[in-house]
Amino acid sequence: MALARLIYVSRMTEECDMESLHKILTVSRRNNLARGITGVLFYDPKFFLQCLEGPVEVVNELYANILLDGRHTRVTLLEYHDTDRRLFGSWAMAFLRLNELTPDMMAQAGCSGRFDPFSLGSEEARNFLVAIVGQRQAQLESQKEK
């Protein structure tokens, strides 16, 4: 099966409050499992940075719906390509908030100062998401061990 990886950034609108965000996550996680989509959603009160991975047709359809969603604007595609492996294969939709990241986590992910995802290139965005999800996964695993 042909897989695609897509990373985009967008600005949130006033329509997207915490209730809307919770609904996005609930619906996405349920639908993503059924449709073979994995990925991560990184959230700041001003923007989304998201990676979606899965069957090409499904990723394309999902992105077309994202472009029409009034909860965000300035949707900017940072990366789109075919792939043979998933970076977030164990996550129906990992969710991370900027305020959950420590300065050390941000530094390890290669970010310092004010974080602006619109300034990221494809590789920088991908590496950032991989780094913070990896750090989050390590945190969760260490909590299980306690």
What does this structure look like?
This protein has 146 residues and is of the alpha+beta class. It has one domain: Alpha-Beta Plaits (2-Layer Sandwich), CATH 3.30.70.100. Helices cover 42% and strands 29% of the residues. The protein is built from 4 helices and 5 strands. It has a 5-stranded mixed beta sheet, sandwiched between helices. A hairpin with a 2-residue loop joins strand 2 and strand 3. The longest helix has 24 residues, at 122-145. The model has no long low-confidence stretch (mean pLDDT 86).
Mean pLDDT: 86
Strand and helix order? EHEEHEEHH
Reading off the top of the CATH hierarchy, the class is best stated as Alpha Beta
Strand content: 25-35%
E-strand count: 5
Key terms:
globular, 29% strand, Alpha-Beta Plaits, 146 residues, five-stranded mixed β-sheet, 4 helices, alpha+beta, 5 strands
Compact overview of the structure:
The chain has 146 residues and is of the alpha+beta class. The protein is built from four helices and five strands; from the N terminus they run βαββαββαα.
Describe how the helices and strands are arranged.
Elements: E1 3-12, H1 18-35, E2 38-44, E3 47-55, H2 56-68, E4 72-83, E5 94-97, H3 103-108, H4 122-145
Parallel strand pairs: 2-5
Antiparallel strand pairs: 1-3, 1-4, 2-3
